[in-house]
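Input sequence (282 aa), recorded before submission:
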Amino acid sequence: MPELPELEVLRENLGKRITGCVIKKFVILKPYVQKTLLPDKLTPQKITGISRRGKFISIDAERNRFVIHLMLSGRLKLKPSSPSTAPLLKSTAAALFFENSILQLTEEAKLKRMSLWIVDADTDFTDIKSLGPEPLSPDFTIDRFSTIIFASRQRLKSFLVNQRNIAGIGNAYSDEICWEARLSPFKQASKLTDDELRRVYDAIDKVLREGISETRKAAGDSIDIPEKRLFMKVHRHRNEHCPRCGTDVAWVSTTARNTYYCPSCQTGGKLLKDGRTSKFLK
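Predicted structure, token format:
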């Protein structure tokens, strides 16, 4: 699933491509994607910019916003249009037609979860979803972070991926943040010491900024953001050496997600219990 770094680069690159373009036509091909009624007089209108809030991307136009959540397998494809243009992809759920290009919202997975809201231009993201602060914004201070985390009853990784706590962090970057902070993903978030709190706070900033930088390098000016994050230290590196201490990276599965971590750096040499089987071992 794309997370804050990938979506931030997507926002930048898509903005360079379609800001100023006029929407000539808009179609919904797969009704499941549509979460709102289609407004009257949807076209024509000019794209004024692209914005992001957490994991939501918004195509902002003069009268409306096209707010998209890509979920696990949603993607945006920008193709040139001409009399000889190939038909829309079979995976296209919706499409915006401009004078010289077509932006296709595609999803190839069997479980269709990508969502699209078309709302008035002055509608705020919070009218669609309750979201926590942006972790790279100036108002995400250590004091604000402290207030949020000490009110939580969740384990650290669950806290990080909860969009009501902090917007934009998902499974992959939460693994990297826990590794960077040298903390177990299963540690109780509200029981962090002052030093541990600072380490997590600093790790959030470092990991996300590095993610944006590395994604920019990999994507260039394309909106086809690479799905492989080769720069990551532990996520999807099971049985490979931890780049900090050399211990083999371990993996554990819970009912909700897979977690990668270094037993030496993060859990004092202990292997975490696999959530799929631990209930049978009690």
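Checked by second reader. The first helix runs from residue 4 to 18.
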